[in-house]
Amino acid sequence: xxxxxxxxxxxxxxxxxxxxxxxxxxxxxxxxxxxxxxxxxxxxxxxxxxxxxxxxxxxxxxxxxxxxxxxxxxxxxxxxxxxxxxxxxxxxxxxxxxxxxxxxxxxxxxxxxxxxxxxxxxxxxxxxxxxxxxxxxxxxxxxxxxxxxxxxxxxxxxxxxxxxxxxxxxxxxxxxxxxxxxxxxxxxxxxxxxxxxxxxxxxxxxxxxxxxxxxxxxxxxxxxxxxxxxxxxxxxxxxxxxxxxxxxxxxxxxxxxxxxxxxxxxxxxxxxxxxxxxxxxxxxxxxxxxxxxxxxxxxxxxxxxxxxxxxxxxxxxxxxxxxxxxxxxxxxxxxxxxxxxxxxxxxxxxxxxxxxxxxxxxxxxxxxxxxxxxxxxxxxxxxxxxxxxxxxxxxxxxxxx
Length: 401
Description:
This protein is α/β, with parallel strands linked by helices. About 40% of the residues lie in helices and about 15% in strands.
């Protein structure tokens, strides 16, 4: 009990003042007229359930206004990743760079259903999530290029992007899952009604620490949704070669699970709504498998064609692309016109191009800032550096909330 008394206040501090905007701010004002049809209903591919008698809704109603907002977010995420890929090829982004292209429906659908109090922690394929959690396109791209306009002042890079109630992309495979359980613990302790979404890939699904996190989350009935983004490959190894069971939604055993078509933004939205209702009702954690696909390799250093064919990637692009399929849905159901969507595409491209220019031209931080903001409340003015005899001065750069 002595140990728990120390853990609980520390965990509570994590979310004490955190709030996030209801959605990432729209980067483009919509001037084109909406279609005359106000809403439409769509059927969703059946979910697969584990230890659940009832799952998410298998039909979804979408308004014309929401259709436009969702399409815009999908378009921004795809453009950000295109820009990031080009910056890496130009050697302006150095180190690692893991692209999310093809998986946009997972993040956008989930974020559309999330509330202010909810939080997210994910792996390193995190650029799109960072934007959706309130960081600007400049904040994302400048962080990737190591410039001071980045959301971590350029000190973190691709695998260390953070925002309000967004606990980052994490570079250690699977390590974000027990951290997510800890954030869910803080939600419960604070009584703020929030739910944590801890995302990981199929490549991390066999990590032992996941099952330790599952166990603690169920023991304490934490409001945590463990989300496996199954994009088919863990680095260069297909799921069939790496996992004895590829039904990741059932891997929680005693934790109920749901399989979701992760290429359908409406399916991911409805599944997330269900998950939030489930967790906030006191039933404890839930596991979701989002079956999706990545167009690029594991990272920019991986061409992605040595373990799969180009034809495989092309087939997914032509038949299951999350943006193209959503575009066809809302146009055919008269929720949007081609001109509206073309206008969005044009403005999104312009916005990301402007952000890219800033990310390339902005300056880096000064050397003295390297030891800044190491602690939220630093009790000492000096921090030990590499050389014990030459300590670094701790400075406050970003204002505390």
